[in-house]
Amino acid sequence: MQLIILGPPGVGKGTQSQLIAQNLHLIHLSTGEILRNNVDKKTHLGLQAKLVMENGKLVSDDIMIGMIRDELSKPEMNKGFILDGFPRTLEQAKALDNIFTDLKFDDVKIINLVVSEEEIIKRLMARGRQDDSLETVKHRLSVYREQTAPVKSYYLQKFIVFDINGEGSIEEINNSILHVLTRVNVKEFK
Ligand code: AMP
User: Domain residue spans in the chain?
Assistant: First the structure.
């Protein structure tokens, strides 16, 4: 299964992706994590990405698409994966289609986590990550509305998109996701 998790920053994509990866034995691929590792290690990519991330902007499509193509080309990805934080623009979504075609990945499912904007600002401010100042958070949300939200409409034309209520306990949300993905009693996964 190739799973894509969509939703605004702070909606819980990272937490839910980790759980789903464990539940369904998928590889969790978070572009934000990969970038943060590069920033910590001060790699060339990390040095390029640092300021962009601190300002709540998006790293360029070229860099991100190259990164995802490299990651998805690894042999272990055949086991299935969950993409968290990618695609974030229409251009990335279109490039991902080509990557999926080239690599013959054809069991794509999309989860869209939905949470009110008020709740998102509350959660992001509580998280306290380096790129979580109020100004940056607001900028990230406007980038999301302008550049990332259209990705959902694009996917609606091609795939089934499961809207999941992202408010509630971590476990409740996890169960809702497992339910739509597997259509079986979630208790079997415990
Ligand atoms: P995240 O951990 O997904 O919230 O990502 C943290 C930051 O990394 C974002 O605010 C962007 O600056 C950058 N980033 C992560 N994924 C992408 C992507 N697919 N395209 C562009 N920038 C990204």
Answer: 2-185
